[in-house]
């Protein structure tokens, strides 16, 4: 459902953020994207959503080439950006209505969906206040709800657990599992190895814009004589 072929991205003609990156994420898979700060995770995710464009390479989402069908790609994606600080002057409900309009979520569907997601993340009472007054965690939860409102098949989540309380993190992980059980794809970045260990069918480890590993965590541990994941990760990314 996600495919990158030989993608290269340079910022300001000098900073090479991605260097010949290729990978895919299939329907039914939760794939974790792991790497130290500045390794190219956010850049990859922004390329997948069409926010930025690659210098070279091809990108496909849900069967659509992003260059030829950018709108189809955007309709296919639920994206959580790395910062939840946006539209802060809007009230929670206003923000979700705006998102519902942009993604053309039918009005009948929209209200029940907003209510059930808000309930899941404990935001029902907060919806009538401006998002300016929300804590970081509440804003992050609003981003989760907004990303899922139009029932996108492909989820692209940039560090989605940051700022979530344990219950909300649990709910989100649960949603990720249910989503992939229905044959959809989840691609998310994380710093937290334990989260990747519990949740992912596969991980992709990136450093300096180059993919160092793409496979299951069991295989990675086997290759490294059953050392702890933390140690393997540090050794891999510090070389
Ligand atoms: N808008 C930008 N302009 C210039 N350099 C950028 C920009 N965004 C990211 N970079 C650089 O690209 C590299 C990858 O960054 P990023 O994709 O944000 O990494 P990650 O999300 O893994 O922390 C870093 O060296 C970063 O400094
Ligand atoms: Mg990032």
How confident overall, as mean pLDDT?
Answer: 93
Silhouette: globular
Kindly state the number of beta strands.
Answer: 10
The name of the CATH architecture is 3-Layer(aba) Sandwich
Instruction: Please report the number of helical segments.
Output: 9
Which fold name corresponds to the CATH topology?
Answer: Rossmann fold
| Helix and strand composition category | alpha/beta
Strand content: 25-35%
Order of helices and strands: EEEHEEHEHHHEHEHEEHH
Question: What ranges have pLDDT less than 50 throughout 5 or more consecutive residues?
Answer: none
Distance, first to last CA: 32 Å
Superfamily at the CATH H level?
P-loop containing nucleotide triphosphate hydrolases
Name the descriptors.
single chain; 239 residues; alpha/beta; Rossmann fold; 6-stranded mixed sheet; 4-stranded antiparallel sheet; 39% helix; 26% strand; globular; binds adenosine-5'-diphosphate; binds magnesium ion
Mind explaining what this structure looks like?
The structure is a single chain. This protein is α/β, with parallel strands linked by helices and 239 residues long. It has one domain (2-87, 151-238): P-loop containing nucleotide triphosphate hydrolases (Rossmann fold, 3-Layer(aba) Sandwich). The chain is 39% helix and 26% strand. The strands form two sheets. A six-stranded mixed sheet has the order 6-7-8-3-9-10, with helices on both faces. Strands 2-1-4-5 form a four-stranded antiparallel sheet, covered by helices on one side. Strand 4 (56-61) and strand 5 form a beta hairpin. The longest helix has 16 residues, at 166-181. It is globular. Adenosine-5'-diphosphate (ADP) binds next to strand 2 and helix 1. Adenosine-5'-diphosphate is lined by residues 11-12, 15, 17, 35, 37-43.
């Amino acid at each position: 459902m996600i495919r990158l072929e030989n993608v290269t991205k340079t910022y300001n003609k000098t900073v090479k953020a991605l260097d010949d990156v290729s990978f895919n994420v299939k329907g039914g898979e939760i794939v974790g994207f792991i790497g130290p700060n500045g390794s190219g995770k956010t850049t990859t995710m922004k390329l997948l959503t069409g926010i930025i464009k690659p210098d070279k390479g091809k990108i496909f989402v849900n069967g659509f080439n992003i260059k030829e069908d950018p709108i189809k790609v955007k309709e296919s994606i639920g994206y959580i950006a790395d910062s939840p600080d946006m539209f802060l002057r809007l009230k929670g409900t206003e923000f979700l209505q705006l998102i519902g309009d942009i993604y053309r979520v039918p009005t009948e569907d929209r209200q029940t969906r907003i209510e059930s997601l808000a309930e899941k993340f404990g935001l029902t009472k907060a919806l009538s206040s401006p998002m300016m007054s929300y804590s970081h965690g509440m804003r992050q939860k609003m981003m989760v709800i907004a990303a899922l409102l139009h029932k996108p098949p492909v989820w692209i989540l940039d560090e989605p657990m940051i700022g979530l309380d344990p219950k909300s993190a649990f709910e989100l992980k649960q949603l990720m599992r249910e989503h992939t059980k229905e044959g959809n794809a989840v691609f998310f970045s994380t710093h937290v190895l334990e989260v990747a260990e519990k949740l992912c069918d596969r991980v992709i480890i990136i450093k300096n814009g180059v993919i160092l590993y793409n496979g299951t965590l069991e295989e990675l541990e086997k290759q490294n004589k059953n050392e702890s994941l933390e140690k393997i990760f540090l050794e891999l990314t510090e070389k």
